[in-house]
Protein 1
Amino acid sequence: MEQEQHTRAPQFSQEALAKTEEIFNRYPPEHREAALMPILHLAQREFGGWLAPETIDYVADFMNLAPIRVYEVASFYTMYNLKRVGTYHIQVCTNISCWLCNSDAIVKTLERKLGIGLGQTTADQRFTLVAVECLGACVNAPMLQINDDYHENLTPEKVVGIIDQLP
């Protein structure tokens, strides 16, 4: 007989709950919904770097919002991950400034180095590689973001060095 596997419903840690109060206090009580984006960001950090459906439902319940409102925001913005990402989430800007400064070579270098294509994660779950439209550092193009760290003025050689230095 097969046993059903139940996943434990997510719950914010005490530290995260304190942070939610800080976030809510930034907004007037009648505009509590405005806290949704930072609360989603907090949830993504708290629950493994991505927003599983259970997490989105938890945030909806936590904020007393219809789940569809939370899904709309989470699915619209690329800063929210709706599937698991590797330990190192590599986002390469491929918008006009970075593209003109050869972001294609950065992408190709990373694909070769990591053995994966855009939108994929390495078998060991260390790296996820994605292209993004803009990371807002056009003056220092081409650039990429690894987790919360920006790397600018890139060359293929610099990118290899950055990856090689990751623990």
Protein 2
Amino acid sequence: MSEIAEGGGNDQHKGKKRAKKSSTRVDMTPMVDLAFLLLTFFVLTATFSKPKVMSLVYPAKIDPKDPPAERPKINNAITFLLSEDKIYYYTGQFYPESSPGPNGPTQLEETDFGTKGVRKLLATKNEYVLSEKKIYREKLDKEQIADSTYLRHISEAKKNKKALKVLIKTDDKATCKNFIDLVDELKIAEIGVIAPVELMPSEFSLIKSKIK
């Protein structure tokens, strides 16, 4: 709202004509109220961005004193060992030289982040989940299923026994960059179970012999 106050000229000076003076005062109260109403509306209706996190599984610690026969079996799993700028891995159960398995003691394989490295390895080992994702993705693109149904099937596929499980172990010389890059590759490969596990002394000795 505005108000205009006019002040007329002096009638005693009839010979001179003066311009009428006016002053304007704008009432800002309604505009401030409107601003607060709009601010409240946007705060209540806005959707805040949620942090993107990746779930990690922390299994129970294994007592090194327990014989291998009494330790829980690792089925359809791959273990990555990070040391310095190196990435080693082995599949299935770990068998030290003192207690070799059916095919002898465990042997480490070396890989990298190249085109034929970690990504190709994970794609081959986790073929079940990736194939399921491809099938349901095609149905989603054709609008045969809803987004919620697609996400539910992918989540169920990751929990299936056929899905690959990944264990990550590092020594005191492993680089943070390699760990982060490896986790990114696991996310791309749709790995559902990722478990950071403490490095066993026998595995540490195997890494040292591999580096030499």
Protein 3
Amino acid sequence: MVATGALGAVGAIAVAWPFINNLNPAADTLALSSVEVNVQPIQVGQAVTVKWRGKPLFIRHRTEEEIKAAEAVPLSELRDPQTDNSRVTDSAKKVRPEWLIMIGVCTHLGCVPLGNKPGDPKGPFGGWFCPCHGSAYDTSGRIRQGPAPKNLEVPSYLFTSDTLVRVG
């Protein structure tokens, strides 16, 4: 009787396993779960967009003026209060104020804000501007104006060297 039950359990697992395994992420999805970016060629004041997990990843090498502007904003003026330092700290808790790394998706309706390409409007706060509904972000990617409820998301990232960052 016990042997029959054990055999039945093994048979049920053998039948169910292909269906359960099918729920795991595909290999191409797992490959996109992290990306390494060499930031050495990015000049001060320049921003680049990298595709990560099917979304734009904004990497900006901020100027001293952008850093000072972001640090000077009182938290009481922010809808989603976060210090600038908390947005430029990697997974190893190392603060690198010159590097801002964010997911470039507006937190209102998922549009891609302008401000990462030369000549793009950066909005009244010098960061990013979503022309779809008027959300404006500052030089730290924090929401300052418009309908967006949250700051641009900062993903988990780690500087593995002075010039190489791994996101995800």
